[in-house]
Design a protein that fits this description.
Structural class: alpha/beta
Radius of gyration: 19 Å
Strand order of the largest sheet: 5-4-3-2-1-14
Shape: globular
Order of helices and strands: EHEHHEEEEEHEHEEHEEEEH
Largest sheet: 6 strands, mixed
Oligomer: single chain
Number of helices: 7
Length: 308
């Protein structure tokens, strides 16, 4: 949707740490951060990948080829017990905060399926009316993430038409899947959300490339987490001891449809990044390159998406 009802969108990008492995306290912190952003009149508030209750960086959960450990299972159970069913009273609390803030709220969670025991890395968008308008499960967890999260297909390519244009996105290394990106471009995405756990400098090239390829605003959002924030009582003490103190230094950023930083990557602190997006930059950028419009060749290429 390119006929913007509102040409200005104020974005708040939350670079913060959850209260690791504690769902209730993390939701409390989430609501407080939403309230902070609402004081700055944010239209869109973006949280990182797996913010509730955490991204369990550094854990093997006792997985080796051919066997698992009971201690690993018990640490995984802590993550399971603090994961979120959608919908539930947990999501109702966040929905109410979004409505109170009169803003879109996009947040990454560990989702627990209501019918079985599988966990998913999920990204939810709440509307200013306090409704869940998008739920996207990570299509392919990366590396040993596959030991804790199942492959997602619900909301495989999910977008939301807003007064600021079409909003959607992918989680972390899903953004390296060319056909997934192309499917979002095909839906006309103007605000591309990229919650991640990747804090490498190389990730920033991906953010700029997607902005130029999709001719859209790209919102990169990551956590800022230190090892000392991990709770006591976990079984994986040897694994934790081997980790650096600065587990995730951040790197959240905002990129224009021309591939230029509006906000350069922010490192080594917990903060909320604010930036007003001029949505008129989207059609301006697509004059000479429109990836699924005049710069496509539908007579040669065809993308078919099985979107559940």
């Amino acid at each position: 949707m390119i006929d913007f009802e509102k040409s200005k969108c104020k974005v708040a990008v939350v670079q913060a740490a959850p209260v690791l492995f504690d769902k209730e306290k993390t939701i409390d912190k989430t609501i407080a951060l939403i309230e902070d952003a609402s004081q700055k009149s944010a239209d869109l508030i973006v949280f990182p990948e797996a913010f509730i209750p955490c991204y369990p960086r550094g854990f093997s959960y006792g997985f080796v080829v051919g066997s698992r450990t009971m201690e690993g299972r018990q640490d995984w159970k802590l993550l399971y017990d603090n994961s979120v069913v959608v919908p539930s009273k947990d999501t109702d609390r966040i929905a109410s905060a979004a409505k109170e803030a009169n803003a879109y709220v996009a947040i990454g969670i560990n989702e627990r399926d209501e019918k079985n025991c599988t966990l998913y890395c999920t990204f939810i968008i709440f509307s200013p009316e306090g409704k869940i308008v998008s739920k996207h499960r990570k299509l392919k967890p990366t590396g040993t993430e596959r030991c804790i999260w199942g492959d997602g297909n619900e909301g495989a390519i999910s977008t939301v038409d807003t007064v600021f244009g079409t909003m959607g996105g992918l989680i972390c290394w899903e953004n390296y899947m060319p056909l997934a990106r192309a499917a979002l471009y095909q839906k006309g995405v103007s605000i591309y959300l990229a919650p991640t756990a990747d804090n490498r400098e190389e990730w920033q090239h991906t953010m700029q490339h997607i902005a130029m390829e999709g001719r859209c605003f790209v919102i990169g959002c990551n956590q800022h987490v230190t090892k000392s924030q991990y709770p006591e009582g976990l079984h994986s003490q040897n694994e934790l001891a081997a980790l650096p103190e600065d587990l995730c230094p951040g790197g959240s950023c905002i990129v224009s449809p021309f591939g230029k930083y509006l906000v350069e990557p922010v490192w080594n602190k917990e903060t909320i990044i604010y930036q007003e997006l001029d949505m008129e930059q989207v059609p301006l950028s697509r004059m000479d390159f429109d990836p699924t419009g005049h710069y496509s060749r539908p007579d040669v290429f065809h993308l078919e998406v099985n979107n559940n």
